[in-house]
Design the sequence.
């Protein structure tokens, strides 16, 4: 049972990236899936979560209007679409799965990925 992130990279300010969170060993749409990030020298923070019912919950105000989360049940994958990126979005992004509900606390998720680096720089 695991999740694996992909899609990170280097992008210029104002650019876009789509991160993927692929699940193995379990059915992803039976879980709440959260995206977290950790910038250098900072605590890991919750960014956005999709509930089992498909609703989106935002935990970072700056993500509203720029980030969206979606799920492809056929591919057992959740996506984080990030638009209009800024240097403040530079971080390692992680996805995590919870069998119950969304939360901004990563410790409540029992399946966590290794992360993918997102660097926003000119």
Sequence:
């Amino acid at each position: 049972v695991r999740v694996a992130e992909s899609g990170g990279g280097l992008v210029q300010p104002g650019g876009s990236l789509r991160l993927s969170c692929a699940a193995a060993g379990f059915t992803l749409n039976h879980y709440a899936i959260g995206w977290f990030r950790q910038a250098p020298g900072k605590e890991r923070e919750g960014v956005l979560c999709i509930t089992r019912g498909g609703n989106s919950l935002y935990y970072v105000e700056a993500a509203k209007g720029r980030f969206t989360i979606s799920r492809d049940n056929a591919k057992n994958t959740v996506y984080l679409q990030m638009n209009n990126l800024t240097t403040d979005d530079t971080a390692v992004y992680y996805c995590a799965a919870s069998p119950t509900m969304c939360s901004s606390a990563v410790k409540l998720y029992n399946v966590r990925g290794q992360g993918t680096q997102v660097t926003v720089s000119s």
